[in-house]
Amino acid sequence: MTDDTGDDAGDDPSDDATAVEDLSVDRFHEALEAEERPVATASEVARRLGTSQASARDALGALVDRGDVDRLDVEADPVVFYPRDWGALASRERVVTFPKRREIVVDRPTQYTRARLSQFANLVDTTGTEPGTRGYLYRIRQEDVWAAPFDDADALVGALRSVLPRRYEHLEAWVRDQWRRAHRFRLYTHADGYVVLEAASENLMGNVADQHLDDDHLRAPISDTEAWVNETAVAAVKRALYDAGYPVEDDRDLETGDPVEIDLTTDLRDYQETWVETFLDRKSGVYVGPPGSGKTVAGIATIAAVGGETLILVPSRELADQWREELLEHSAVDPADIGLYHGGTKEIRPVTIATYQIAGMDRHRSLFDSREWGLICFDECHHVTAPVYSRTAELQSKHRLGLSATPVSETGSEEEIYTLIGQPIGADWDSLFEAGFVQEPEVEIRYVPWREEMARNEYAAADGRERRRLAAENPAKVEEIRYLLAAHRDKKALVFVEYLDQGAAIADALGVPFISGETPHHERAELFRRFRADEEAGSSDGGSATDDDLDVLVVSRVGDEGIDLPNAELAVVASGLGGSRRQGSQRAGRTMRPTGSALVYVLATRGSSEEEFAQRQMRHLGRKGVRVRETNVAE
Ligand SMILES: Nc1ncnc2c1ncn2[C@@H]1O[C@H](COP(=O)(O)OP(=O)(O)OP(=O)(O)O)[C@@H](O)[C@H]1O
């Protein structure tokens, strides 16, 4: 271990006394800001404060003793210092920019700053445990710039400048470049009724469009910069150009819906108000929150605020009826203004609720395609299947709203949802748990259906141990694991399995390592080290994961044998429900940190003996005072 000593230790010692007295956490923070790094060595702090390295080190040592700053000794490197908690730095808002990474850390952001940032940046993470002391990490991604609700690049850059402490030329240039990309292609309706793709230059039409579009996407060129679009390929054209980095503006003319009068009768909670305001600003987005967090109610408030004809798409008829009831409960809408469009009922009203199934069918297409909806709301949007996506992508609407407990679709691609609906809004689950609106369970049992006919049949035909194994290895569990990891992407997770084949298959599907009894000891030790590494590395590189870090491990029984992974915050028990009760609660215990913030999800195949085991285990845990919740996963 090397200390950060010596380089300028010979400075005038009279500096030292003043520096030690002077160095407040605030000044340390200013030094970090100037360095554009979340950590700093004593030499760097000394340079920024204009004092000697030795005195800076002493002053930092004093801050460490007071508990405001932490230090990390990195082998063969100088010691680095970093604030223990961004939130403990000051009671006022603080914005630190890392322009190269296009990241912004805001400590105690005001509502204004959060609202502004949400227009052009994505909330990646929050740190700290108390709501009032949280640090917020935002990242500006290209799709955030593309979807930013501004009239022009100047207005967007103006918004950027209004929250950042100073100007960042490169960052602004990048933002302008991304903005430009999003305004190079446009679709419009020709006076004769057909759809035209227009490029900003001949070169774009010749190179970009030619390279990325298929022959059947365009019918014929109209000019050097315009082409006649095959009307069944509108969505495909939008998708292909989006993937090429050129999102298309859609200015097609469609029949305009009538205004709708709906008064909300329920008072929104603060966070719901923020969701709705953010949505109105952006005109599109996905409300992402845990089950029961009030997405439907926020959706109804959005319908009321938009006040235009609304199409609500839901996965099942039952949900269509439920939506109708919720609309009546939370708003003063006239029941005659709500139409149901599914199965035998085919009503189009100011607020129409239809199933995805109908929306994806060719013969109902014109009903949806021929008008411009004020708002389309995609409920449970992660369940939307690919054909429905391509169909609804062509639906024209002024506003698109998705509701989801996870932004990841069943095809495993969140890009799809972001492209077709909009950016996630309100993904900060922990604050909902903290505010007590939604109770975070300690253990949640999720009953997973069979999704593959073959697996279900095999199960039905088997017996004894084989039957138990097949229930344990239900392939639908893989999607469920993916979903849970995505919903908690900032948490370190362990996935426990009983069977080696299953472990290997899950690890393969997720692209993460699998540790079993067959894994050589040194490899196992190395993987555990990388899983634990983040906490330490987090302080030396500002929390961004290095290539070496592991966030997810699939572990077979060996994981149960007293290994110590204190930073695991999430456990998914994919199989092993036939095991002893002791083993079950041990698995739960493994991830329960002293703070009690770990979550355990137990997956049980619906209609199998796993269900019974899970319930028995649940009663056992319940008696021990553990909060347990049961959830049925939709088919
Ligand atoms: N602002 C509010 N005031 C009072 N009750 C509310 C409010 N928002 C939501 N609720 C209630 O909380 C419960 C959950 O709300 P809601 O159905 O909107 O959640 P959700 O996130 O859509 O849930 P799910 O994902 O299960 O569909 C409902 O009983 C609803 O009436």
From TrEMBL:
Domain Helicase ATP-binding: 276-425
InterPro entries in the cross-refs: ATP-dep_DNA_Helicase, ERCC3_RAD25_C, Helicase/UvrB_N, Helicase_ATP-bd, Helicase_C-like, Helicase_Rad25_arc, P-loop_NTPase
Substrates-to-products reaction catalysed: ATP + H2O = ADP + phosphate + H(+); Couples ATP hydrolysis with the unwinding of duplex DNA by translocating in the 3'-5' direction
Keyword Phosphoprotein in record: no
EC number(s) on file: 5.6.2.4
GO molecular function, one term: ATP binding
Pfam families reported for this sequence: ERCC3_RAD25_C, ResIII
Keywords: ATP-binding, Helicase, Hydrolase, Isomerase, Nucleotide-binding
Alphabetized Gene3D superfamilies for the sequence: P-loop containing nucleotide triphosphate hydrolases
SMART domains: DEXDc (SM00487), HELICc (SM00490)
This protein's record includes keyword Kinase: no
Domain Helicase C-terminal: 477-635
Similarity comment: family membership: Belongs to the helicase family. RAD25/XPB subfamily.
Record-linked HAMAP family: Helicase_Rad25_arch
Name used for this protein in its record: Putative DNA 3'-5' helicase Rad25
Organism, scientific name: Halorubrum coriense DSM 10284
Gene for this chain: rad25
